[in-house]
Amino acid sequence: MALRVGLVGIGRKGLTIDDETRWLLNYDELPCTHASAYVINAETQVVAVADPREEARQDYQKRYGEVATYADVAAMLREAQLDIVSIATHAHLHAELTVAAAQAGVKGILVEKAMATSLAECDAMIEACRSHGVKLLVNHPRRFHAVFQIAKEQIASGAIGEVKLAQCLGYGKLMHNGSHTFDVLRDFFGAAASVQGELVATDDANDPDGRGVVKMRNGVTAYVDFASVQPFSFTFSGTDGQIVIDQWEEGCELINYELQDQRPGRPWFSYSPKRAVRRRLHAPQRHLLPMQAAVAELVAAIQEDREPVSSGAEGRGAVELGLALHASAAQGGARVEIPFRDTSLRVVSR
Question: Could you say which DSSP state residue 231 is in?
């Protein structure tokens, strides 16, 4: 029997983002709405949707047919007998909705990134799910993107040697957009040790642009910039080469530098010319798209009674880096250690 799903928030990510004509190849792949991912999955069935906007509820039914619709999430949780709740609202609502869904007795929750607006909210979400036996997955799409999985495997195999530097660029809003990058860094390199950051004033006082340095515990130094209005890109530099991921180009580029002139007798201090050997690595022709892979992972975690990939703890880790960069900026760019201890600091991203 299919798992019964209730969608909360049927706006852009929940329902309509697939209508957009431009897309970022190495962010997500169409279709990438919550609604489409559950409809495609044979083990899930959307039985209810909740959104305060009548036009949004009607739009869902025009696209996918009749389901129970609710203006009030609490009513949906009481009445719809749900197994999974999928939350695609803005971040300031995530904690309250996640705790309510866990207390209602669902089996799994998928919540959009950024996971929450403070570490206290993240902790409340994690504890509610733990105490009620609920699987919690935070949707960071690059965790499930085939190109990023290829890049991660190449790095782990030593294809570019020991990674020393990660350069991560993206559009503004340090917490909302930066959370993608913070999660990639933790996924690829493990825990962070410290951060130093600065904020750049924008028209969004709650979630301004920003940039900074993240020191990883494994020795990698990461420069993150969400203030220079660059497209999303990632460059990972190691002792034997680089891996470059650009949002507009499918796949990733593996660059290795090979000695071009190895004549005997060259003094050790002389420059050794090298040439770049470039290889384009592509996702398999047939692969599970990121949003669909996230749903499949949550279903598998429920069935196998295990923590999902991109768990609540991982989502908290991404939020922690964003908050620590804000705290550093407030101290004039001072070094802030990770773990970050201030659980009350709050940054309200969308």
Answer: P
Strands 68-70, 44-50: parallel, antiparallel or unpaired by DSSP? parallel
Mean of per-residue pLDDT scores for the chain? 94
Query: Is the whole model's pTM more than 0.70, yes or no?
Result: yes
CA distance 350 to 347: 10
Strand partners, 337: 194
Q: How many structural domains comprise the chain?
A: 2
Phi, psi for residue 18 in degrees, rounded to 5: -65, -15
pLDDT of residue 267: 58
User: Looking only at Cα atoms, what is the longest distance across the chain?
Assistant: 81
CATH number, domain containing residue 17: 3.40.50.720
From 54, 11, 55, select the one nearest 33 (Cα to Cα).
Answer: 11
pLDDT for residue 265 is more than 90: no
Q: Report which residue type is found at 231.
A: P
264 falls in which pLDDT band (50, 70, 90)? low
- For residue 179, is it within any domain? yes
Q: Tokens at residue 87, please?
A: 């939350």
Find the range with the poorest average confidence among 92-106, 120-134, 180-194, 196-210: 196-210
Q: Where are the alpha helices (DSSP H) in 51-93?
A: 54-64, 73-79
